[in-house]
Write a structure and sequence with these properties.
The protein has 321 residues and is an alpha+beta fold. Helices cover 29% and strands 24% of the residues. It is globular. Its EC number is 3.1.3.11.
Length: 321
């Protein structure tokens, strides 16, 4: 049986050649990142780097390594006008600007999981560039403007899940280093009995969120009249991947610990690309159950938002509390 490879899928896309080039570069770099992640302690890649990123978070060695890998590969491509990363303070324009695309990424989502050998991933968003010499202002486009979004999840298998606005497809990295189509037309079930949230923060959530989760925990004896299971990997890429594979909802709401911050997750590097994938798979992706993430107008590069995404009917239930 002939299996579709990612390079053949990209070549067949009804898309500009520049976008195909960007996707090819990202996929190749994610395959290389998979090798580095798999090497772990043997490659000297575990532990902290001793650096603090723009988010005021301690960087892992692999945060720095993977950020450098993606940045260098993308800026070397003539299709790319500039890049932005969760790990970098500012946008990086190409040194010889001529490309049509802006690429934003979280190079290693869930990097706190690295030292315990739990799933991590890379998240990527692609926008059209209005200029050959982009500044931060050129990146401030709502998620609806994305021309592609993808993530790679590094777990028991390495998978790359991609949308260019015509559905969602999943590719698995073979032992030979090829991305092979294994999940065609990924769709999220509208109903679910599974939710993902960090329950340790319950006391910090707004009352409606506490009420919603409390109703889930009451199971078939409560107002939802069915039993729910909770899952939490502590890496957005892994939790969203589970939802795309079998349904569910992922919630990361505002909480009182940092009341001046609207949320924890980054709009440009996590919210927008994941929202694009979830919507293309038939789910919903919102800030609060009501406002679509893809309609949020970015105000700055490292903007944070609350997130509620996944099975459409369950997100509607969340909005109704």
């Amino acid at each position: 049986m002939t299996r579709t490879r990612l390079d053949a899928h990209i070549a067949a896309l009804d898309a500009p050649e520049g976008l195909k080039t960007v996707l090819t570069v990202v996929a190749a770099t994610c395959a290389d990142i998979s090798k580095v992640v798999a090497g772990g302690a043997l490659a000297g890649a575990l532990g902290a780097s001793g650096q603090i990123n723009v988010q005021d978070e301690e960087q892992k060695k692999l945060d720095v390594m993977t950020n450098d890998m993606l940045t260098e590969a993308l800026l070397a491509s003539p299709a790319v006008a500039g890049v932005a990363s969760e790990e970098m303070d500012e946008v990086q324009p190409a040194s010889n600007p001529a490309g049509d695309y802006l690429v934003l990424f979280d190079p290693l989502d869930g990097s706190s999981n690295i030292d315990i050998n739990a799933p991590v991933g890379t998240i990527v968003s692609v926008l059209k560039s209005a200029t050959a010499t982009p500044t931060e202002a050129d990146f401030m486009q709502p998620g609806r403007n994305q021309v592609a979004a993808l993530y790679a999840v590094y777990g028991p298998q390495t998978m790359l899940v991609l949308t260019t606005g015509a559905g969602v497809k999943g590719f698995t990295l073979s032992n030979d280093g090829d991305w092979i189509l294994t999940h065609d037309e990924i769709a999220i079930s509208p109903d679910t009995k599974e939710f993902a949230i960090n329950m340790s923060n319950l006391r910090h959530w707004a009352e409606p969120v506490q009420t919603y989760v409390g109703d889930l925990l009451k199971g078939d004896e409560g107002p939802r009249a069915k039993n729910f299971n909770m899952r939490w990997v502590a890496a957005m890429v892994a939790d969203v991947h589970r939802i795309l594979m079998r349904g569910g909802v992922f919630l990361y709401p505002w909480d009182r610990r940092e009341p001046n911050k609207p949320g924890k997750l980054r709009l440009m590097y996590e919210g927008n690309p994941m929202a694009f994938l979830v919507e293309q798979a038939g789910g919903k992706a919102t800030t609060d159950g009501r406002q679509a993430i893809l309609d949020v107008q970015p105000e700055h590069l490292h903007q944070r938002i609350p997130v509620a995404l996944g099975s459409a009917n369950e997100i509607d239930a969340y909005a109704g509390v």
